[in-house]
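Q: Got a minute? One more chain.
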Amino acid sequence: MIHQEQWQQLVAIIARHVPQDGRHYCPIDFLSFGRSSQPTSLAHVATWASFALIAQGQKALRMGDEVMHYGPGDLLLVTLDMPVQSCVVMATPEKPNLGVGITINETRLMRYLEHFPHHQLGSTAVSERGIAVHKVAPPLVDAVMRLVELLDHPQDIAALAPLIEQEIFYRLLTGPEGPRILNMALTERPGNKVARAARWLRENFHQPLKMDFLASSVGMSISSLHHHFKAVTAMTPMQYQKQLRLNEARRLMLIEKLDAGTAGYRVGYQSASQFSREYSRFHGQSPARDVRTLAVGPEWLNPPQ
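A: Always. Here it is, folded:
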């Protein structure tokens, strides 16, 4: 169980390094912070393999039809890249939402796993979900705090940050989510195959979806890929592709100032009416109205904490 004093120390450390709202990066390439002084609306974001701790406040994340709430004492673990919705639900100027995020570098994780004694992993069965929330163990919080404290000693980062990263891998693998991380990392596991399929969809979302090609490219049958993909992401491959397309179309219209027809065509829609219909269903209003009324803020453009 996490001691209150430990959380207060984490709050103080994050607050010192992020005096302003927004997402903040630092000299440690896999470490970032988030701060918000007020609640935010539910917004479409992208996630990647990572985990997050909320030191103060509370956030919510929606994946498919599932909604997860997390705050102090919770660990949000993400094991693959996927589109979700996220928002800050509890924050004030006096007590802002403060969070720390750790990106899981898959290359370094695989290198660590080559020497990791797998018999140390817990055998508790877990679901295939690519995102999960559970209680965080004190040793993992302690490792994260020591990593953040390195920012006060920049001369030590190059030597010590990689060692603390390996400790973080160890704490994750020997914790309740160890099997879930292995499911993501090991090539023969269904979770890893789904991650590869999701990566292909993300990089080629503008192309027509051919399930036979996608399934064979990751070494699965069509039915197996469909089953495991939905188990991991709470979406079918087609729903996943549609979210990627509609999020990118919104970005193209808001940031690159493309008209709806051009944005729809750019992300793979051949029919303007189909694009408008699916956009309206997904974002709640027509493309033109959405662009006119949306107050562009950093929350929906940035990954969640």
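A: Residues 18 and 35 are 7 Å apart (CA to CA).
Q: Perfect, thanks.
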